[in-house]
Write a structure and sequence with these properties.
By secondary structure, the protein is α/β, with parallel strands linked by helices. Helix content is 44%, strand content 12%. The protein has 17 helices and eight strands. Helix 15 runs antiparallel to helix 16. The longest helix has 19 residues. The protein starts with 11 loop residues before the first helix and ends in a 10-residue tail after the last helix.
Length: 381
């Protein structure tokens, strides 16, 4: 028997069937490759390559880039075709459609609207065009999505404040949070304190990329100086035990994006990713894509890699899925309904992956015994 229990046994197609969330996904890193080429052709935008293969190579899709700064260069390409309302609506729609196809039920899409004004679009139009795409996908595919507005660490404190004002204006109108993204090393979150003060004064949720390309001090600053309710990545949280337990005690969710962390060099490989360690310690760990295109991934693939590369078993996976719904920036009563539904769906599967109304693997239990199996306890708080 394998020492890792069900490890390497559940296929990717099984994970795809489970209900999921994606709480950390960048709009400008999650386009379809063909859409970039089509939009460039239609809008006469010059790209560094004119074929899918050429573009894939130039953007290092799914490859190790060595550093966050190198990884971020692929965004220069995607942003070229994200400067009109029609393209933003289409890209948002397709992202939600792709997520719905792998049973993502709730998604929080993040981006920095100021990066989409190169052709003169108004910031309000940049928000509304994306909302239009997300709402259309909800109608067609049943996936609910909201927006997280990003400030960028390496641009300026003033621009972050402007993004914070935009988040305030669209609170309860499709925007559910505020984030700080971009180059972490050399650009501390405290420089953007005024933006965070404004969003917190308006009772808006915040998350900050931290502990990805800098140490645990960056995570402490995100939480204690800027008031982050969730942490993006948090790879280097394991370097500070005291902060690790603070994050655990306060149930501060970690938005883990394993493959992206390997790509940017935040961790050496998937096996050395701290996600399992955090999960074993009881931290509120969620699994996300970061960038479906640039990291060449899906939520199901990320969870499946946690299973095959890190040894997480189905019972851990169920917990991670529930943590995703618990950690969303939705109102509590809405969240409870999602949790009830996800819990009921997950309870249909035993921890070995067989369905409750099927014979369990390696067992000859009677139908009577099978009917007596308890469902997963509902943990709604
Ligand atoms: Zn990110």
């Amino acid at each position: 028997m394998s020492t890792q229990g069900t490890a390497s046994r559940l296929p990717l197609s099984f994970i795809e069937k489970l209900p999921k969330t994606d709480l950390h996904v960048h709009l400008d890193g999650s386009l379809r490759l063909e859409t970039i080429l089509e939009l460039a052709d239609r809008e006469r935008v010059q790209l560094p390559a004119d074929s899918a293969d050429g573009l894939r190579k130039f953007m290092h899709l799914g490859e190790n880039c060595g550093s966050l700064v190198e990884y971020l260069k692929a965004f220069d390409v995607t942003l070229k075709v994200m400067q009109t309302e029609a393209s933003l609506t289409r890209i948002a729609y397709e992202l939600a459609e792709d997520a719905a196809a792998e049973n993502v039920r709730y998604m929080e899409v993040r981006y920095a609207p100021m990066l989409h004004t190169q052709l003169g679009l108004k910031l309000t139009s940049v928000i509304e065009a994306v909302l239009e795409g997300l709402r259309a996908a909800e109608k067609d595919h049943g996936i609910e999505s909201n927006i997280i507005v990003c400030g960028i660490r390496n641009i300026s404190a003033e621009s972050s404040l402007e993004m914070a004002e935009l988040a305030v204006a669209y609170k309860n109108r499709g925007v559910v949070g505020f984030d700080l993204a971009g180059g972490e090393d050399g650009h501390p979150a405290k420089h953007h304190k005024a933006a965070f003060q404004l969003v917190r004064d308006n009772n808006i949720n915040t998350t900050i990329h931290a502990g990805e390309a800098y140490g645990p001090e960056s995570i402490a600053q995100a939480i204690h100086v800027c008031g982050a309710h969730r942490i993006g990545h948090g790879c280097r949280l394991r370097e500070n035990g005291d902060l690790l337990h603070y994050v655990n005690d306060h149930r501060i969710p970690l938005e883990c994006c394993p493959s992206s962390n390997v790509q940017t060099g935040a961790v050496r490989d998937l096996r050395s990713h701290p996600l399992k360690f955090y999960s074993d310690l009881g931290l509120r760990v969620t699994v996300n894509t970061d960038n479906r295109l640039i990291t060449d991934t899906t939520v199901s693939k990320e969870i499946w890699l946690c299973h095959t590369e890190m040894g997480l078993e189905l019972r851990d996976i169920k917990q991670i899925i529930m943590a995703g719904f618990k950690s969303s920036f939705l109102p509590f009563h809405v969240k409870q309904e999602y949790l009830r539904r996800a819990n009921a769906e997950l309870a249909r599967f035993r921890d070995d992956g067989t369905m409750v109304d099927e014979a369990p693997a390696n067992s000859h239990s009677s139908r009577h015994e099978r009917a007596a199996l308890p469902a997963e306890p509902a943990t709604l708080a």
